[in-house]
Amino acid sequence: MGPQGWWPAENKIEICLGAILVQNTAWANVDKSLENLKPVTNFEGEKVAALSQLELIELIRPSGFYQTKSRAIKELFQLLATYDFDFTKLRQTFGPDLRKKLLALHGIGEETADVLLLYVFDVPVFVADRYAQKLFAALGVVSKNYHHLQQQVSVELTLAQAQEFHGLIDEFGKLYFKTKSFADSFLAGDQLESRL
DNA sequence: GGCCAGGACACCA
DNA sequence: TGGTGTCATGGC
Length: 196
Prior knowledge:
Layout lengths: L11 H10 L5 H15 L3 H6 L2 H8 L5 H17 L4 H8 L3 H6 L6 H10 L10 H9 L7 H7 L6 H18 L3 H7 L4 H5 L1
Helix pairs in contact: 1-2, 1-5, 1-8, 4-5, 9-11
The structure holds a DNA duplex.
């Protein structure tokens, strides 16, 4: 499939916003919200943090779940503001506990926390999202949930490789797991393995 | 008109 | 721990 160049964004502030907005939402709808946010914030951390939750709700409405997402954005950017939007300082301060710190924020679960680690804090982690679970299930790796798959898949990758890995898995998933009927026919026999 | 997207959370047993 | 309902918009 070639390089996917994930995550598509101008800067890390935009990635933070996109990571929350894309939760169970088609990217086309995320784009609408980002287009609303850009002229208002220019994707500068301080300007995003200065927005009220009500203002955020109006701007991100096209992405749905605006109550939860606006609160998540508020909480995340409050944390970031405390460290002057210095992602390196934040990572060094919390070290291995950074993931726990992110998970403690309302509206940020395992997948979003890992996406932030991978694309914002430069930590090479494996994002065990739904597409990854489907793909690895097709390859014979049965997993109960997010955490379980993450434990089973041990990847030693550089940061750039880990970022690309997740992008490839999701783009692959969009193509081949879109409909169940297609997935069933695609997964018949050993076609998946040969294509991989 | 129904289904679902690059989830998370509250509630329940 | 694990399963289910709910949150919401827009495209197909």
